[in-house]
Amino acid sequence: MKVGILSSGGDAPGINATIRGVGKTAINNYGMQVIGILNGFSGLLYKDIVELTDPSLSGILNLGGT
User: Fold this and answer.
1) Rounded to 5, what percent of the chain is helix, strand, coil?
2) Which pTM does this prediction carry?
């Protein structure tokens, strides 16, 4: 099963922690494939996606931006 994570834009305090928490839970507890959708809804339309893995999610808490 796959799950996609998309942020529609704008300021979103805590979004990195949310993405990390949802992603790691989906991967580690449910064996899901997690897809990050880049550039909001435009990324959904144009398939601007990246697979999020446990290692790639581990370093996002200290990153700025959304």
Assistant:
1) 40, 20, 40
2) 0.84
